[in-house]
Amino acid sequence: MMHTHTFDEQHALHLLRHYLPSQSPLKDFIHHNSLHAFQNLKFYEAIFKASKMFGFQATTPLNDFRQMYANGRIDDQVLNRVIAQRQGEGNVALWREKALVQSYNEHVESRVGRLRALWKSQYQIDMDNAVQPLLFRLLGHYLDQGVAMWQFPQANAGLLQAVRHLEQHSYVSLFKTKRAKELLLSQDLSIAKLLNMVVGNEAYYEQYLFDQQFGHRGWSGMVATVETSPNVMLDRKEISLKDFILVELLLEIDYLDGLLVQWQPIAHDVSTPPTDFFADLPYSELNEVLKIWQDAFEWSYYDHVLAGIQICSGKLKTQSALETNKSFQALFCIDERECSIRRHVEHADQYAETFGTPGFFSAEFFFLPQNGKFYEKLCPAPVTPKYLIKEFNVTASRAHDVFYTPKTHQAITGFLCTFTFGFWAALRLVQNLFRPKMAPAISNAFSVMQSEGQLTVVNAHPDDRENDLQIGFTVDEMAARVLSLLSGIALTKDFAPIVYLIAHGSSSANNPHHGAHDCGACSGRPGAVNARVVATMANHPDVRKVLQNVGIHITESTQFVGGMHDTAADEIEFYDVHFLNAENAQRHEANIITFERACDLNAKERSRRFASINTKAQIGKIRQAIKARSVSLFEPRPELGHGTNTLCIVGRRALTKDLFLDRRAFMNSYDYSTDLEGKLLANIMKPLGPVCGGINLEYYFSRVDNYKLGAGTKLPHNVVGLFGVANSSDGDLRPGLPWQMVEVHDPLRLLIVVEHFPQVVLQAIQSTPEMYEWFINEWVHLSVIHPESHDIYYFRQGAFVAYQTLTKSLPDFTDINLLLEQAKSMRTNHLPEATQENLPVYLNQ
Amino acid sequence: MQSLMPLYVFVPLLGFFLSLFFSRTQERAITSIALTTVGLHFILIIYGVYDWATHGMESQNLKYWLLFEHEGFRFILDFYFDRITAVFALVGAFITLLVIVFSQYYMHRDDGFKRYFNSLLLFYVGYSFAIFAGNFETLFIGWEIFGFTSFLLIGYYRDRYLPVKNAFKVLSLYRLGDVCLILAMWMAHHIFHTNITFTELAQPDWLNTFNVDIYAGPLLFIVMMVLIAAAVKSAQFPFSSWLPRAMEGPTTSSAIFYGALSAHLGVFLLLRTSPLWQAIAGFDIAIILLGFVTALFASMTAKVQSTIKTQIAYGAITQMGLMLIEIGMGWHGLALVHFAGHACLRAYQLLVSPSTLGYMIHNQFFEYEAKPVNAAILSNRLRNSLYMLSIKEWHLDTFQQKCLWLPFKWLGKRFIWLETITSQVVLMLLIVLGIMMDLSMFTLPAHISQHLPLVYATLSLMCILAALASRGSPMRAWWKIIMSQLLIVLAVSLNVHVESAHVWIYLTTTISAAVMGMFCLHNTYHIDKDISLNQYHGYVQERPDLAIIFLICSMALVGFPFTPTFIAIDLMFTQIHAHQYGLVALTGVGFIFLELAALRIYARVYLGPHKKHTHPIAYRSS
Asked: Domain limits at A422?
């Protein structure tokens, strides 16, 4: 901590790495809690503290809350209840007054940056302006993955070593002055030594480093991330935060030495003691008011949801035994975007049954596409697979696009290109504007694997290994994965003739953040390979024999088919259908019509949020327009990603089948009756925090402060080194989500609803401390619906307490088309207006 | 054909004015206007080109509208159509149309949707004026307009620090180009005693009617000024570093401005004025050399760019350098084709630049080969030196800062004493005395009075520089700008007596702009009692109304086209005699910094990150 007056370099670097943003290069977009560094604190304590430390907005502004109260988005009864809970029954009137009318000073003064501000006040110099442009260019070029034509000389030696080498072997110095150059070449270079020159007082060293590194948190965060896991870059770079800080300090010394004035170290004559970044916050009435509003905003929605689930749960009793005459079963990812397509599949064919499960379908492996030079990880990010799946027998060759060649930026080749590509470019642009279609430079979700190729699913021989990975799975290993998948979702009997495993991916054009739209359970990649691999495993006769031994009997007539849903284009592709027997092939033909119909409706449902598409238009036109979006260069919103995600439901489909949840719910199929002791539940719930909670919180923070915690608007983004985006030539990297992805999102925390007995759920979440932290520190909400009494319980401060819904009845609908066509559109993307586009919970009659 | 020519500037102008009347949520109305305007313009151009091509490709000229006349100085809106116009008009309309189609989806729901389309149409007005111009004055109108819209669109994200800073940086260089053009016009007026039209210039013998030998010096001065103006606009050596820094606005505006159209206007200017500089022996060599040096250094710098947009910027500078070589060689047709292909290529490359990440990573995934560490390269000191220089952009940004900016700032700081009450009173007294002399209420001996213009012009420049360097109250800086305007008018008016009617027109505009501007600043000051020029305040967040009024006042005060001050400033220059180098230099430098001083106040008070952290605000470095 900062109280000590001696400087410990390792400790300081450790703290910096802990608090810096940890977003990987954009090619792999893995959602995570933007404030992961504060997760050991309670949610509210954490966000207000982080806000004070780094100066960003922690919640929706007070005035927006009040507007949402005025327009009915925040419920009056809920507000009263929240106040009573937080401030006591007797103080409701007083705190209503504070929440609704009292004015507060909302100015956030951050702790970071105070020491370095002295450069400006004491010497009228702008240190950031003087040092950052060259520093960013140098670093960007060092880390560059393939934009520049000229490589950084000796780019693999470590940043400091490479810069030193360049300095020694060049007529031109990096520096303007002598001392910085000598320091660079000296052997006993250390952060403390340089800080002694620049800061001068050991007590302030750590504060100075925080000021300096959080002055460009994007770049520093990238350095720290690459240092920790160098394999996040294809072209690996040796770099350390320490080297980076040393180079920055040297550039600062160089600049200061070049000044005309005599300068003193910045903390040479400071009267105030060093700022304690980590000090606890004093009581703030404004923060109490904001907590009330955030809770009220959340529960105004949650209350409807819980009421809806309770109603559906109550009806379950009266329902007859499950249908046995199923036309097909389809497993989708738990992703909240698949919430609607499942509803539409069930609507299009009432004999179809759908399930939700993490989209890697319980098979974890690396994938090597034919001719690929690297392995792609296809499973949740924290898992390290021991298996490799290789693609072979692909005949189609990869298409190229000549317009991205850096040769156009050279004199002679550029000259020739101008006369050839130049006019061709004009035609291409016209074509893409008026008739957009798929092209090599557009990220195509289906291109992750060629459907004509084959995969090494089955391990041929235990020695069949590559780079310490086993190629393919043995029969037992396959059976274990299929068993884990099927028992998790309680699909262990009554198999339909065809069971579909439908992964998802997303195609988009001109979108550096395309990875953020792909499957989170597949490390931010399309999940087609997983679906295909697991279908192959489940069709394997030997695997079925093993399953038979553990009581899962899958008749020979049942076949598994892998497929993938493109969530942007709303298209589904199926794999290996030629293996289907004649009867199933026929059924599959019929099922395709069902899926097409579901895609139609799904496209229609999504179209209500796109201003350029008329939701009332003919369905064919809507489909065409939706598909065109995914390949249009001019479309910054090919789809809206996880925008609006708020719920996660773990239970039987019947709980939500009759609810319209507006694509806001992650849904994990689970039947408490097959797991009364909760043995499976712990494993099912373990990833919900990091995956669903991570997505939800990244959206939360990118929405409440899109400037500091999000990436800002996409429109000016400039691709840097193929690993990040910045706003301009001299700008900082912008981690987080761009504005176009979050503008429909309501910044609410995730509510997880589990169908089980409260004490079983409590045991499950307490099984590992990492999982329990998510709940006890309130980063996600947890509710339980009692499967027998249908009572609702809410997890508060370590225990489940009964929850009475305020909502007594829900609006209902009979025609989904009408519901979608009549939905409101936002006038502007300002939250109180934008949120009106998000529909309440409807009950299907 | 001739009868159509006014439409080529008035259609965009009408579209621009119409687009002002809608609010930002009326996206469809705004885009319809933009599409109709540019679409119609495109059709008119196609018709015009067809008509021109089928009538023997003869250049067309139309003296359209005499805006102003005074003792031999005639400000005429004059339009011209030839092969150069045809190519630039076709390419310009085509690319602008495509970018508007692109933007109507791309900009959807952006806070500045309306502002973006307004600026784009205003740019198009400027572009049309410049390429259809039949004389320097008309061209200058366009030149000024698109310089200003560049400022608006680079600083489009006005609530962030870097866009505002870079917009101002680019503007300051553009001003240099603008003033060079004014000086060229001033000198041309004096040696040719008429407003030269491009149609006359294109006549093979026209220049021979003048005794070129006598005018060799002034003529060289004119073409030098034109060359600097062109080099600034097309980011040629040593004015290159602004182009990568201009990529701050939405990708679409970068595509149309810095990829396609705006940057090529330097090339256009050189093509347009070729008869002038071809009259000077060896000048073509100078142009070729400039192009060569630029292409050489820019292609090396392009090699070390690790961001897409800056790489495209340096690639574009390289190709524009080659165009200069072509122009110098006399291959104007080639240069025109080169321009057309290049504008399309860069516009496309910028528009698809976000795709680069996905595509190139995908490519690398399949084609990656670890680069062998080549020991021979490392021992190559020269190569490393070039590398280091390229990383540092050959110090061009520092050069711009150190040579073109800091000296004047330093000088301005020396004149801070002008803020004291005593010096203000003295200045006021001098102004009153000047007015009295101007009205012939008394006279001074000739040997004193002949120096008066120079004295007043010097004082005026001192005021401007002091305003520019001021870190204190913007009201005082604004006041100094007003004083400088009065002083410069007196300087010119004492030099050659100007009809008082003209002075009054000018003064009423200036004074009403000055008063309105002061009113805005005053009201803004009263929000928090602190609007010192020491930092950005971002008041546009709270008072967008005051911000836009103040911007209009600034433009009126400093002589934006179509304000009376604009004519007055042109007129002022023509009143300075050809041999009065001192006076013209002072006035010219003053004119560069006048607009900068005014827009600096605008930027510091109204733009940049809002100082109240009650809502999300970007980090300074982002």
From this structure: 402-434
Query: Do residues A741 and A815 share a domain?
Result: yes
CB neighbour class for A36 (10 Å; exposed up to 12, middle 13-18, buried from 19): middle
Chain B residue numbers touching A720 (CB-CB < 8 A): 306-307
How close A157 gets to chain B, by Cα (Å)? 11
**Contact status of B248 with chain A (Cβ, < 8 Å):** yes
The number of C-alpha atoms within 13 Å of A815 and in the hemisphere containing its C-beta is 4
Residues A657 and A802 in one domain: yes
pTM above 0.90, yes or no: yes
- Burial of B442-461, coded b for 16+ CB within 10 Å and e otherwise, reads eeeeeeeeeebbbbbbbbbb
Helix (H, G, I), strand (E, B) or coil at A457: coil
Give which of A248, A242, A257 is closest to A212, Cα–Cα.
A248
> Of B299, B199, B537, whose CA–CA distance to A406 is shortest?
B299
Residue B350 contacts by C-beta under 8 Å, 6 or more apart in sequence? B251, B254, B255, B258, B259, B309, B312
Same structural domain, A729 and A795: yes
Between chains, do A728 and B312 touch, taking CB under 8 Å as contact? no
Burial of A773 (0-12, 13-18, 19+ CB in 10 A): middle
Helices marked H in A578-659 = 582-607, 619-630
In this structure, are residues B195 and B231 in contact, taking their beta carbons and an 8 Å threshold?
no
Number of domains observed in the structure of chain A: 4
B90 in reach of chain A (CB within 8 A): no
- Report angle CA A264, A267, A270 to the nearest 5 degrees: 110
A356 and A497, same domain (yes or no): yes
Q: How far is CA A396 from the centre of its chain?
A: 32
- Is there a single domain that holds both residue A683 and residue A800? yes
pLDDT at A95 over 80: yes
Count helices and strands in chain B by DSSP H and E runs: 28, 2
> ipTM more than 0.90?
yes
Bridge partners (DSSP) of residue A525 are A519
Structure confidence at residue A775 (pLDDT): 97
Residue corresponding to tokens 């952009």: B393
In a domain, A156, yes or no: yes
Residue A110 DSSP class:
-
CA distance B347 to chain A (A): 9
What is the SS3 assignment for A147? coil
Q: Give pLDDT tens digits for A375-416.
A: 999 999 889 999 999 999 999 888 899 888 888 999 999 999
Strand partners, A665: A647
Judgement on whether residues A620 and A753 belong to the same structural domain of the protein: no
Q: Is residue A450 part of a domain?
A: no
Residue A497 CA to its chain's centroid (Å) = 35
Residues A794 and A844 both lie in one domain:
yes
Minimum mean pLDDT among A193-197, A795-799, A836-840, B193-197: which range? B193-197
**Residue A280 placed within a domain:** no
Instruction: Return residues 296-325 of B near A (CB < 8 Å).
Output: 296, 299, 302-315, 318-319, 321-322
Residue A453 resides in a domain: no
d(CA A111, CA A52): 6
Same domain? A570 vs A698? no
> For A436, which DSSP code?
-
The residue out of A412, A434, A456 marking a domain boundary is A434
**pLDDT greater than 60 at residue A318:** no
CA angle A535, A537, A543 (to 5 degrees): 135
Which residue among B318, B338, B622 sits closest to A727, beta carbon to beta carbon? B622
Gap from B265 CA to chain A (nearest CA, Å): 18
Contact A166 B357 (CB under 8 A): no
- A600, A628, A643: which is the final residue of a domain? A643
Chain B partners within 8 Å of A714 (Cβ): 354
